[in-house]
Amino acid sequence: MQDFARASALNGFDTLTAEYGLSYTELLRDVGLPENILDNLQGFVSYRAFLEVLQLGASRSGDPLFGLTLGLRQGVSIFGPILYLLNNARTVGDALRELEQYFHLHMGAARVEISRYGDRMQLVYRVLDPTQPGLSQGAELALGVGSKLLQTLMGDNWTPHPMLLEHAPQAPLQAYRNLLGVSPQFDSDTTALLLKPEELDFPLSQADPVLHQLIRQHLDNMQRLTDLELPGYVSNLLRDLLPQGRVTVDQVAECMAMSRRTLQRRLNDSGTTFQTVLNETRQKMAQRYLRDSHLQVTQLSDLLGYSDLSAFSRAFTRWFGVPPSRWADVRSSASKV
User: Fold this and answer.
1) Residue 276, domain extent
2) Residue 104, domain CATH
3) 137-184 pLDDT, tens per residue?
4) 308-328: string of b/e by CB count within 10 Å (b at 16+)?
5) Total domains, the chain
6) CA 49, 53, 56 angle in degrees (round to 5)?
7) Could you tell me if 204 and 231 lie in one domain?
8) What residues does the HTH araC/xylS-type domain cover (predicted)?
9) Phi, psi of 80 (to 5 degrees)
10) How many whole angstroms separate alpha carbon 89 and alpha carbon 71?
11) pTM (predicted TM-score)
12) For the chain, what is the radius of gyration of the CA atoms?
């Protein structure tokens, strides 16, 4: 499964947790996410860890609608460059169809689909792995964001839209009405926002065809990185993923919405391999942390995604000729010569 989301999916998490008297860094740390993940909202987080931290926030705050509240506050800001594309589409329907096409750039673990639902249209949020815990918090966050998106696109034409949720209510219905203006329909067969078919034809006042085309080209280029750019992009992706556990070529390929074979072929065309990029990224990260931090070697081994300390020590000795425990002393001696 493509188990990733952009860190922007947690935008505002620090502010909301502070209102409940909670430490957001403690919550992130407790689910295994880097404490500075919010410093780079275009980075990546594990979707499983994303759900875990939402669930933990709901539990420790005592607010069962924690995810929904966060989603409503985030609104469209989480979409980054995709938002500019949507705002410059011709109609609401065009914007939602482009969200469907490019949503995987924001979140690989879920899909957004626009389709018919009886006499209505539905904007569906579908998680690729429905077995993960915490899906209710993630689904309500998504509907909060979706509601704000429709409000942004439709402007004066917007009214609260019917919503479907696959889970049972997590709070009294009045609490949902207070936040959303409507009570969702629970225990449904899907998670979605419902629209009238004619609403898809509403024109967007901000539409700029030229700007729309430029942004579309930019997003297409994000999906078709040049061979020269690809190793650097993979290295940046590895820096985000390694602290969350061991990283495989399959996981990276899924994050980039391409097959393993395609990623390996394109890296070969650029004159390198996945293993080479992985080793070089780990080397640079190891040097930087040993130079600029007070991390223990065991912590560094975990941060670089190694299964155990001995595997890291062997790799480090192969790279630099000395074990990590001696690297600082050897470097200090060399600087005095």
Assistant:
1) 225-328
2) 3.90.1520
3) 999 999 999 999 999 999 888 899 999 999 999 999 999 999 999 999
4) eeeebbebbeebbeeebeebe
5) 2
6) 135
7) no
8) 232-330
9) 60, -135
10) 23
11) 0.72
12) 22
